[in-house]
Amino acid sequence: MLLLRNITYSANGRKILEKINMRFKEGMSYSILGPNGAGKSTIAYILMGVIKPSEGRIFMGDKDITELNITERARLGISLLWQEPARYDGITVEEYLTLGGKLNVDKEELKEVLEIVGLPYELYHSRFVDKSLSGGERKRVELASILLLKPKYAILDEPDSGLDITVTELIDRILDYLKRIGTTIILITHHEDIAKKTEFSYFVCSGKIVRKGFSDEVVEYYKRACGKCPLLEVMRYGHQDGSSKGI
Ligand SMILES: Nc1ncnc2c1ncn2[C@@H]1O[C@H](COP(=O)(O)OP(=O)(O)OP(=O)(O)O)[C@@H](O)[C@H]1O
Q1: Which of 39, 128, 199, 244 has its CB 3.0 to 4.6 Å from that of 207, i.e. a possible disulfide?
Q2: What pLDDT digit, counting tens, does each position of 115-131 carry?
């Protein structure tokens, strides 16, 4: 289990996350849903060890991993799909995905995974992971790399951004694959239809959790609140069902 306990993060005198508590159980799928600037990517960076929280602790099972860096967390099985993947000159898709041959992947598996992300092996394995790949193709390569790494926890920061209308089926295939290999999925999105594909959701607004629960229910709440931050309303009047659930 991956756990965020009372996470607060401040930068440049601004509180970006406040007392965030999240729990990601093994083999389950979660989404973190919220409008632009809500703090979703900041949560991803804190889970991955890109930034350290100002307050609060991060646990994997009983182990406190708050002080571990990105490499150490990657070794424990946490992977992050960056919203904007980097590009590298002189490295082919196949070299990139197999870590230059260091990752134990056979050709059939590589083919299968490239098929899942919509990049046929024959057309793409010798392409370079540089500016010659379109943004959408680069994103698909990055998704393939997460699948091949077989992480315990896959944090997917807006896997749908920059992709064309086939994205819904692509996300279905990716979630199916990760489920099959037992990976816990943490999917960051502002799209309801994508969030609904996961079992549980956290709705984050202005750096706080305003709702959590089964994805269908949280998404319905998000749709009602869409276009405005419901936080002030929620704090003033309580939830529509009268509960304080999720806060
Ligand atoms: N180092 C920083 N200094 C100041 N503000 C920051 C810093 N890092 C993040 N922020 C701000 O914190 C807020 C949350 O950012 P974050 O990228 O986590 O949002 P998000 O929910 O992922 O948004 P989006 O959906 O647009 O990607 C934003 O308003 C952002 O400008």
Answers
A1: 39
A2: 999 999 999 999 999 99
